[in-house]
Design goal:
CATH architecture: 3-Layer(aba) Sandwich
Number of domains: 1
Shape: globular
Strand order of the largest sheet: 2-1-3-4-5
CATH superfamily: Response regulator
CATH class: Alpha Beta
CATH topology: Rossmann fold
Oligomer: single chain
Number of strands: 5
Largest sheet: 5 strands, parallel
Distance between the termini: 14 Å
Order of helices and strands: EHEHEHEHEH
Length: 134
């Protein structure tokens, strides 16, 4: 089974980026690339080709769902798995995010020590389903 090597973390909050990067790099052991907003995320994802993108839902300018649509429109980023990160998790929103193509949602504030495990489980479940479907 494939393994995560590189994660793109997209969040407009510097504290979340710092904590997330420490958790993903130190605990997860992954290369972590950062972006402050949607447009930057689309550009960075195209050049860095991360294995997964952790994407904040609520950001100024281009929000997470709009960013996800932008990623899906570009061949270089169309198939990169995306997991939303948000403080507002309600049942109807979870389904909407999945309908948009997200693998899942991780709540804020997240447990830095548990973040890599949660992310790995979401991605590997998706990869396993992909393998069964082919």
């Amino acid at each position: 089974m494939r393994e995560i090597q590189k994660v793109l973390l997209v969040d407009d909050d510097e504290d979340i980026r710092v904590i997330g990067e420490m958790a993903l790099s130190a605990v997860g052991g992954w290369t972590t690339v950062l972006a402050r907003g949607g447009q930057e995320a689309i550009e960075v994802a195209a050049t860095e080709q991360p294995d997964v993108i952790l994407l904040d839902v609520m950001m100024p300018g281009m929000d997470g769902p709009t960013t996800l649509r932008g990623l899906r429109e570009r061949p270089a980023t169309a198939t990169i798995p995306v997991v939303f990160v948000t403080a507002k998790i309600q049942r109807h929103e979870l389904q909407r995010y999945r309908d948009l193509g997200a693998l899942g949602v991780i709540g804020k504030p997240f447990d830095p020590m548990g973040l890599p495990k949660t992310l790995r489980e979401l991605v590997q479940r998706s990869w396993a389903a992909e393998t069964r479907g082919s």
